[in-house]
TrEMBL record:
One of its GO terms (molecular function) is deaminase activity. It comes from Marilutibacter maris. This is Endoribonuclease L-PSP. Transmembrane segments: none annotated. InterPro entries: RutC-like_sf (IPR035959), YjgF/YER057c/UK114 (IPR006175). PANTHER family: 2-IMINOBUTANOATE/2-IMINOPROPANOATE DEAMINASE RIDA (PTHR11803), PROTEIN HMF1-RELATED (PTHR11803:SF58). GO terms for cellular component: cytosol. Belongs to the RutC family.
């Protein structure tokens, strides 16, 4: 059984999708960005930090934490501050590292955006 989820404390989805879909013991989180936030025009690290605060809110809404991240895909338009990206990820993971991909892309749906993150979290069935 699938449960489609939209979280009221996050910006509404900007298209025909939901924030996440729960299936069994997994929560599949749609790509999150800093779109519409003060971080939208910030650096890659500022945007990444904002996105992870959104992931933390989703986890909190589900009664879990970021330690339950199973897999993340981080899309960035600029890898110039790779060390800053790694520090930001380590800060949010708190030693609970998920499987992860970091992919450089030519661009995202809005020109100011530098980061998009998709995630899978483990949740209780």
């Amino acid at each position: 059984m699938l449960e489609r989820k939209t979280y009221p404390d996050l910006p509404p989805p900007a298209g025909p999708y939901v924030h996440a879909v729960r299936s069994g013991g997994h929560l599949f989180v749609s790509g999150l960005t800093a779109f519409g936030s003060p971080a939208e025009n910030g650096s890659t690290v500022e945007q990444l930090d904002h996105v992870y605060s959104q992931l933390a809110r989703i986890a909190e809404n589900e009664g879990i934490g970021l330690a339950e991240l199973v897999k993340v895909t981080v899309l960035v338009t600029d890898c110039d501050d790779l060390e800053g990206i790694r520090r930001t990820l380590e800060k949010h993971y708190g030693g609970h590292y998920p499987a992860s991909s970091l992919i450089r892309v030519a661009g995202l749906f809005a020109p100011a955006l530098k980061v998009e993150v998709e995630a899978v979290m483990a949740v209780a069935e």
